[in-house]
Every structure is written in structure tokens, then in C-alpha cells.
């Protein structure tokens, strides 16, 4: 599968010619100025929670592409109120089959509200089982023992985890999370966007390596096959 990083926690995964776009926050990210939001394609948009730095560009992309938005009940309802007709509600504990594979929703340990401060439901993470590989996106979260439930249903090829600390897990906690998830490859997200979450890349990679885990910190716009 092809993985493209758009900065912060925004990324896309191409599976069998189907594009899954996660947490699109691009136009508000000063580090992602080279990314043209109006040119991004999506067949599905997966939203982990309601904070502005995860949904800022989601409505405009959904309207332009007619992508199906996958998120919890409160978030899909909010998108419906924005005029988005194609939504699929998935709450923690649930699973759904799509043309690219099976998605299971898990609880994330994080707050969640819309930009106006209203309640956006619980924060979520998602395990994706596809013909081209399996992965888990935790969304914004703290370390949780619930993560050990993920590999009971989905054997992971890699995990996408926040590493910026302060607002989510930091590097040390993300290493513990990877162990619970039984994932030996991690793509780090939610780092460097704001001064509070700037990290030492070299040290982070070294700490993961000492734990026997490969950490990838991609450049914005970087595309990899994984």
C-alpha cells in the first residue's frame, strides 16, 4: 500500500486504488504550505475526533470529492449538518466492511470537541484489515491497556501513533503502545506542528530502535510503500 504524509496527523493510504484520507488538517498547518488541499483525492475520510487540527479541511474535501466520512455518531451527525450526505457511523466496539477491507473502531484516551466547543463524542482509533496489509491508527491518545485488544482481532503490519507528547503520547509511551499493539513498525504523527510538540527526531528514532521497533518520521509530502 502507498502511504502519503501531509503533516501533523493527516495522511492518506492507497489500497487497491482506493484512497483513505485521515484527519485532514493541512490549510491551517504552516509546515504544510506545499500541499494543495484542493488537489487531494479521497474515497473515504476517516476522522478520529472533533478537534480543529483533525477536521479543518474535511468538509471542503468531502464536498469536492463526495468521499464517505467514517467517524463516530456525533461527528457523522455534524458532517450531515454541514451538507455531507455520504457518512458512515462507526463507534468504539463496532466494525464495518468496506470495499477496501474491514475497519474496527477502538476507544482513544483523549478529549474531543468541535471548533465551537460543542461535544464531539468520544475520541477513536481504527484498525484496518485489508488485502494489502493491516494497520492501526490510534488518533490522538494517551497510552491505554485497551491497545492490547487490537492484535486480538487484527495482526498489524504497522501502527500510526502520536509521538509529540504534552497533548498525546510522547515517544516513551508510544514505544509501550507499540509493544501492546505487537507492532514492530511505527509511523509517527502529531509532532513538530506547534512549539509544544516539537521533538528530537534522532533521539526518538534511537529510542524506538533500542526497543526493537522501527520508527518512521516522514517529511511532509513524503510517499512510501509499506
From TrEMBL:
Superkingdom of origin:
Bacteria
Gene3D superfamilies recorded for this chain?
Ribonuclease Z/Hydroxyacylglutathione hydrolase-like
Which keywords accompany this UniProt record? Answer: Hydrolase
Does the keyword Protease feature in the UniProt annotation? no
Among its keywords, does the record have Hydrolase? yes
Q: Name one Pfam family in it.
A: Lactamase_B_2
All residue ranges annotated as the Metallo-beta-lactamase domain in the record: 7-190
- Record-linked InterPro entries: Metallo-B-lactamas, RibonucZ/Hydroxyglut_hydro, UPF0173_UPF0282_UlaG_hydrolase
GO MF annotations, alphabetized: hydrolase activity
User: Record's SMART domains?
Assistant: Lactamase_B (SM00849)
Question: Which PANTHER family does the annotation name?
Answer: UPF0173 METAL-DEPENDENT HYDROLASE MJ1163, UPF0173 METAL-DEPENDENT HYDROLASE MJ1163-RELATED
Name by which UniProt lists this protein: UPF0173 metal-dependent hydrolase
Q: Which organism is this protein's natural source?
A: Dyadobacter beijingensis
What's the source species' lineage? Bacteria, Pseudomonadati, Bacteroidota, Cytophagia, Cytophagales
